[in-house]
Amino acid sequence: AAGIPDFRSPGTGLYANLQSYDLPYPEAIFEISFFKQHPEPFFALARELYPGQFKPTVCHYFMRLLQDKGLLLRCYTQNIDTLERVAGLDPERLVEAHGTFFTSHCLRPSCRRPYSLGWMKGRGPGLWGPPQGPPTPQAGRWDGCRGLLFDLLIIMGTSLQVQPFASLVSRVPVNTPRLLINKEKTGQSDPLMSLMGFGCGMDFDSEKAYRDVAWLGDCDTGCLALAELLGWKEELQELVRREHAAIDAGAGDKDREDPGKRQGDKDKDRRDPEKPRGGNKDPPQ
Predict the structure, then answer these.
(1) pLDDT tens track for 78-125
(2) Which structural domain, as residue segments, surrounds residue 69?
(3) CA-to-CA distance for 70 and 68, rounded, in angstroms?
């Protein structure tokens, strides 16, 4: 809905559009060893995804609305486009599991320093690696949902094919309701995955199903329908209108370049390459 092509759609997905680069396999584009030898495919992909040319959608602002109402415990995302940040999600509640364009790091052995998106747009010298994640401070948050109390787990717009991310749906308490908003049902029980320790998956249709519900359609329509049931439809639509107007008027330019700024001084280290995080510790890789 934001105009960003997905990865896996046959013929139109980003992987399909990279066939001319003769990748050994699609995921190689995100492997640092392949990138060092053949950076061209990644930069071709980055041109399609780079922040600043897309706006958050209804789905992003629905998550923002949950946060504003004190109902968002955590947001795990596979997206690297920073739109969750642009929509105003608190980075402390955000786990960008596959990395993010918000930060990059220099690949020169003598440097290895992280740099912010805003800094890179104007000055970035040298060779910069693909987004990688989860960064060190977030790595421990993969299991952070264990032991926490959830009222609801919402899963949106994913094939649930990539591990370990896909197994997150099985890491919530067994009595937690799980809502899938997606164009098709996905993440169903797989005995092989269960034997490998990735959980038992989702159960929408069996006689034993008791907590999983699938709403089939695009994420924006699903979020709007859920907001209407909650009595928030007009509030959500107004939030989208107001934020998009600010972006269109240019007031959002700084946030798109440096989305963490709206979070205040606590995120200064995320934006300041001259102040490495964690003292003398190595920066996130």
Answers:
(1) 887 888 998 999 999 998 877 776 677 777 788 877 766 565 555 544
(2) 56-99+145-251
(3) 5
pLDDT digits (tens, 9 = 90+) for 261-284: 444 444 444 334 344 333 333 433
> What are the CA-CA distances from residue 117 to residues 20, 99, 114, 135 (Å)?
28, 13, 10, 15
Do residues 261 and 267 make contact, with C-beta atoms less than 8 angstroms apart?
yes
* pTM of the shown model: 0.68
Active site residue 60: no
Which of the following is catalytic: 38, 98, 105, 244? Answer: 98
Q: Does one domain contain both 108 and 184? A: no
- In this structure, the answer to whether residues 157 and 233 fall within a common structural domain is yes
Phi then psi for residue 245, to 5 deg, are -65, -40
pLDDT < 50 positions in the chain: 124-127, 132-140, 252, 255-285
Tell me, yes or no, whether 26 and 133 share the same domain.
Answer: no
Report the chain's mean pLDDT, rounded to a whole number.
Answer: 74
Two tokens at 75?
Answer: 């947001």
Residue 274 placed within a domain: no
